[in-house]
Design goal:
By secondary structure, the protein is of the alpha/beta class. It folds into two domains: 2-204, Vaccinia Virus protein VP39 (Rossmann fold, 3-Layer(aba) Sandwich), CATH 3.40.50.150; 209-453, Spore Coat Polysaccharide Biosynthesis Protein SpsA, Chain A, CATH 3.90.550. The protein has helices at 2-19, 35-39, 52-61, 96-104, 123-131, 146-155, 176-184, 207-216, 232-237, 259-270, 285-296, 316-324, 347-364, 380-388, 401-410, 434-453, and strands at residues 25-29, 44-49, 66-69, 81-87, 107-118, 158-166, 196-203, 219-225, 246-252, 275-280, 301-304, 330-334, 376-379, 415-419. It has a seven-stranded mixed beta sheet, sandwiched between helices. Strands 10-9-8-11-13-12-14 form a seven-stranded mixed beta sheet, with helices on both faces. Strand 9 (246-252), helix 10 (259-270) and strand 10 (275-280) form a beta-alpha-beta unit. Helix 13 (347-364) packs parallel to helix 16 (434-453) and helix 14 (380-388) crosses helix 15. The longest helix has 20 residues, at 434-453. It is elongated.
Length: 455
């Protein structure tokens, strides 16, 4: 029984360590003896618990952390935190909406609320385990389903970012438990049977503040360009004005046509109307060009626009509004909502796009309908968080947009698809090498599986 309980705690602790960035400001509601809060390694760690004896022991064991005897239903926080943790806490609380409304006061728009709870399908099994003394007796619990909690969170001003399940075999069996819980538990179908469930949520944006942010935020549009001389001027003439100020950054990538000369000409001709910055790429590949452009950018919102103009510049206004308002934290272009001509996207390409979108949605635990659209938008603040956390994945992405997708998923950012119409290119030919880049996509999916789903 002790090893099984230890396995459950270890799996839960590992998941929180994955979801919470070290050196953050963390509040744990229902901190118990403080071991989870200490394992997160926060810069500032505050724990509250209704059990005064547990609080006193936690203070003795972890003197650098703060612990207070507080009831979650009466708690009135005096500051906000990067993360708020509630590890199985809602299972014991009598007035869940009241506790969540109190927790809401400890959250700003970037705070992540992380909840864990037991899958209600296990209620009978765990009750039987208690009966035969294979599990410690517990007081009556709130057996809340995911739908129950999502509704309670919405009523309290939160929205769910993602929902995951772990721990298929909570009883310790040497060799077998580790294999089952690491490799079988994440698989579709089997995953729905897991014991431990996790929800990551955030505070819902307020409508008035969102509209104000759309007007006041600035924007940088990064345009990687290789052998696209015939499209450069249209990137400027068709560009909408975005927010308070729009900055356009061309990154030329070792073209063999007149792309660089055309970029220089366009900057000279339109420089009095637009804030245009230009550079030549120092490395290779679109990923390197995107990162170089982002490093130059000064806007609050960062965008990628492919210079082939298969996605219309006019549609960027929808991406800007989605991210600047806070309604999402990363906007992902989706070309598979509107009709797409076979010229712009042949059937085989469309099938591949849908397959990779499904696979990446599963691996990243975030629904994405079109993972291969080059138009991605994120705030500079969140991009810098991805850069800071980039060592977790390393320099793996030759395209640039998967670095953003993987990083955003790891940080539990709110990712939303923004539909775009997809058109055939009017100038030049595609730089994509389908077989080579398809193999690269498979490699990245395997990488995501190892680093995220089966970690």
């Amino acid at each position: 029984m002790e090893k099984s309980q230890s396995l459950l705690l270890h799996r839960s602790r590992s998941e929180y360590q994955f979801l919470v960035q070290p050196r953050s400001q963390v509040l744990e509601v229902g901190s118990g003896l403080g071991y989870l809060l200490a394992a997160i390694e926060p810069r500032q760690g505050v724990g509250i618990d209704v059990n005064s004896l547990a609080v006193e022991e936690a203070k003795q064991t972890f003197p650098r952390l703060e612990f207070h005897t507080e009831d979650a239903e009466e708690f009135q926080p005096t500051q906000t935190f990067d993360y708020v943790l509630m590890a199985n806490t809602l299972s014991y609380i009598q007035d869940v909406p009241k506790a969540l409304k109190n927790v809401h006061k400890a959250c700003d728009p970037s705070t992540r609320l992380i909840l864990s709870f037991h899958n209600p399908a296990w209620e009978t099994i765990l009750s039987f385990a208690t009966l035969i003394q294979q599990r410690m007796p517990l007081p009556p619990l709130n057996w809340l389903s995911f739908n129950d909690l999502e509704n309670l969170l919405n009523l309290s001003g939160f929205e769910v970012i993602n929902h995951s399940k772990r721990l298929l075999l909570p009883k310790w069996i040497p060799l077998i438990s580790g294999f089952v819980n690491r490799f079988l538990a994440p698989l579709p179908g089997l995953n729905s049977l897991c014991l431990s469930e996790f929800i990551v949520a955030r505070r819902m944006p307020e409508a008035i503040a969102a509209q104000s942010a759309i007007r006041e935020k600035t924007c940088s549009v990064i345009i990687p360009a290789r052998n696209e001389a015939g499209n450069i001027e249209s990137c400027i003439t068709r560009m909408p004005r975005l927010g308070k100020h729009t900055e356009i950054i061309f990154v030329e990538g070792h073209s063999v046509d007149d792309t660089w000369a055309e970029i220089q000409r366009v900057q000279a001709e339109y420089g009095d109307q637009w804030d245009i910055k230009i550079c030549q790429q120092t490395g290779k590949g679109k990923g390197n060009a995107v990162r170089q452009g982002f490093d130059m950018a000064s806007g609050d919102v960062l965008m990628i626009l492919d210079s082939d103009l298969t996605v219309r510049p006019e549609d960027l206004v929808y991406f800007f509004q989605a991210v600047a308002s806070g309604y999402c934290e990363m906007a992902n272009g989706c070309r598979l909502i509107y009709p797409v001509s076979a010229v712009a996207m042949p059937l085989l390409n469309r099938m591949a796009n849908r397959f990779f979108a499904w696979l990446l949605s599963y691996l990243l635990n975030t629904r994405i309908k079109d993972s291969l659209c080059g138009t991605k938008v994120i705030s500079k603040e969140n991009y810098l968080k991805i850069v800071k956390n980039r060592s977790y994945f390393g320099d793996f992405d030759p395209f640039g947009d998967f670095d953003l997708l993987f990083g955003a998923a790891k940080l539990s950012l709110k990712i939303k698809d923004v539909p775009v119409r997809y058109f055939p290119r009017q100038y030049g030919s595609s730089n994509i090498q389908h077989v080579k880049e398809g193999l690269n996509l498979f490699k990245m999916c395997l990488y995501a599986a190892r680093k995220i789903k089966f970690n």
